[in-house]
Amino acid sequence: METKTGNIIIEKIKESKITKVDFSNLPFGKVYSDHMLVCDYKDGAWQAPRIMPYGPVSLDPSAKIFHYGQSVFEGMKAYKDAEGRAWLFRPEENQKRLNISSKRISIPELPKEIFMEGLTTLLKLEKDWIPTTPGSSLYVRPFIFASGSGLHASPADQYKFFIVCAPSGPYFAGKIKVLIEEKYSRAANGGVGYAKAGGNYAGQFYPTQLAQDKGYQQVIWTDDNTHEYIEEAGAMNIFVRINDTLMTSPVSDRILDGVTRKSVIDIAKAEGIPVEIRKIRVEELISASKNGSLKEMFGAGTAAVISPVSGFGHRESDYSLPELENSYAALLKKRITDIQYNKAEDPFGWRFQVG
Amino acid sequence: METKTGNIIIEKIKESKITKVDFSNLPFGKVYSDHMLVCDYKDGAWQAPRIMPYGPVSLDPSAKIFHYGQSVFEGMKAYKDAEGRAWLFRPEENQKRLNISSKRISIPELPKEIFMEGLTTLLKLEKDWIPTTPGSSLYVRPFIFASGSGLHASPADQYKFFIVCAPSGPYFAGKIKVLIEEKYSRAANGGVGYAKAGGNYAGQFYPTQLAQDKGYQQVIWTDDNTHEYIEEAGAMNIFVRINDTLMTSPVSDRILDGVTRKSVIDIAKAEGIPVEIRKIRVEELISASKNGSLKEMFGAGTAAVISPVSGFGHRESDYSLPELENSYAALLKKRITDIQYNKAEDPFGWRFQVG
């Protein structure tokens, strides 16, 4: 049976799958909620969005997504507080960035109203799917791909925007050991590295696998020209603490403008932590590690929030990071998740209630 | 009704669509033949391939192709000669390159037998779909994408290999005008530029559109670091003739090892044309254009075969190429297509009969 909320037609699932899910033992991004949002672009315009039972999508084998990688996505999380209210974190940042990514990949920009109304309507409906066990949340994945078909290497004439939801546990278990990569690269100058475009991720799998075979969990990407500067940590932004100064690389056309990254910068500044946004040399990390001034490294991103690094490899050497009692990573993670879960004041106005 | 040819199960279409197709007026890659080949990777192995009616594929919305751009493809053409025999051109080169691309994108390599037997069995069945009007051919598109689902940024556990066929006219009509790109880039050092990976193409659409808005048809990609060297022409390799010497950029991890590219090099050498495989500076093109020694530029690739360039733009200037009576582009195109259509001897052993 179909109903309508605002501009969105809703077809509800006949029987919820929720009782079959073990909410105390959730993987990351493998269990999906009952409903999804779908919106089609055709005839030169985004059409009316619909919410329907989560289920398969049927595509022509010549749909351009299969051939030319024309896709963009966002990653978000919904949290539930002690009173059972549902919250998002800075969703308008994701909305803006989705269109920035789309522009670079020649995907038609999605009207803000479709994104925001679709997101909030879907999350109101899926509120029971937001887990409450510590460290867990409802991972929300908006994405757009080229559904129009044709074997000519040119933009498609049809696209599909989806939002799917996955109740999820933590992305990484514990600290990660990373390898500074000097052969493979993530992004070119003038390329698509700043966009959350599908192709940016597929290209990382092989070098990451090579690093994993050597005992590391993630790769630290360096610039493709000199490999002298660190840029990102796997699919996260990278932070480094030398003495008491927190540093991160500036965003560029090679580096994603992460929502967690900029939130961490703002929180750190509010905490009185000296923050430097500047290019960070690999040599600087190594000498700081040797002289004891390298205190911390961590990745920052929506999926992992803040992921502390236990050590890094460079060429044939391994460098360990100290165990700190009062780490910036722990402090910043507590501050940001307390805002996300509505456990603390939100001086920045980042929390966004959805139900 | 199902039959079996070799290792391949064949389910034939009930009624062919072929009579509905206007073979005298074919677009490129928009009309598809009756059948396609499908082969699944699951449980750690490529399964038995099947030929079935061309039709939609059903996927979970969390299939990794939609999120992480994990896909590779090949482009090939089948030709029919005056006696009605069907031919491919160097198909084993495509088979090898597909696996080279797959390895970089963390897609499991496809056994050669599945590729070659699948290809030849499908083309025998689709032989009537090979057009015979001049300049036309059956465009053959083998491709693999990640069908396994999950919102974790890591390789999928399931993949699909398809071969689809599209009777096609020429890719470009006439000569093309190109713009030397100095802001956007196609590939990074240590990136995936040498792979026929989907994401390489999506990233080209926007800069190409900007060039088209200025009156050019394609972009000449330069290296992402200095923009001083030309690398590729749109989705083709690039050739330049200065005086009587034919030049092309060496392949690298940024440049595709094109089958047409290496065939052109071999034919040119056999014709006694001096060939230089070396990096080509933008400045060299401009000064050669000014002093009259720049005779020709052309793109080379399977879809367009050889695509002559009428002129190029650089910054705010345009440079015209002369009209030559005996161009290398025309000679080389005739030599290569005469081999492809079985109109001439094949001293290189490139032709491959399929039916």
TrEMBL record, chains A, B:
Enzyme type, top EC level:
transferase
SUPFAM superfamilies found in the cross-reference section: D-aminoacid aminotransferase-like PLP-dependent enzymes (SSF56752)
According to the UniProt entry, which residues carry N6-(pyridoxal phosphate)lysine? K196
Keywords assigned by UniProt, alphabetized: Amino-acid biosynthesis, Aminotransferase, Branched-chain amino acid biosynthesis, Pyridoxal phosphate, Transferase
Q: Which cofactors are reported in the record for this sequence?
A: pyridoxal 5'-phosphate
Q: One Pfam family, please name it.
A: Aminotran_4
Task: List the Gene Ontology MF annotations in alphabetical order.
Answer: L-isoleucine-2-oxoglutarate transaminase activity; L-leucine-2-oxoglutarate transaminase activity; L-valine-2-oxoglutarate transaminase activity
Indicate yes or no for the key word Transferase. yes
According to UniProt, the reaction catalysed is:
L-leucine + 2-oxoglutarate = 4-methyl-2-oxopentanoate + L-glutamate; L-isoleucine + 2-oxoglutarate = (S)-3-methyl-2-oxopentanoate + L-glutamate; L-valine + 2-oxoglutarate = 3-methyl-2-oxobutanoate + L-glutamate
Q: Which InterPro entries match?
A: Aminotrans_IV (IPR001544), Aminotrans_IV_CS (IPR018300), Aminotransferase-like (IPR036038), B_amino_transII (IPR005786), BCAT-like_C (IPR043132), BCAT-like_N (IPR043131), BCAT_family (IPR033939)
Q: Which CDD domains match?
A: BCAT_beta_family
- Example of a GO biological process term: isoleucine biosynthetic process
| EC number per UniProt | 2.6.1.42
* Pathway recorded for this protein: Amino-acid biosynthesis; L-valine biosynthesis; L-valine from pyruvate: step 4/4; Amino-acid biosynthesis; L-isoleucine biosynthesis; L-isoleucine from 2-oxobutanoate: step 4/4; Amino-acid biosynthesis; L-leucine biosynthesis; L-leucine from 3-methyl-2-oxobutanoate: step 4/4
Q: Which PANTHER family match?
A: BRANCHED-CHAIN-AMINO-ACID AMINOTRANSFERASE, SUBGROUP IIII AMINOTRANSFERASE
What does the UniProt function comment say about this protein? Acts on leucine, isoleucine and valine.
Identify its protein family.
Answer: Belongs to the class-IV pyridoxal-phosphate-dependent aminotransferase family.
Protein name as catalogued: Branched-chain-amino-acid aminotransferase
Organism the protein comes from: Muriicola soli
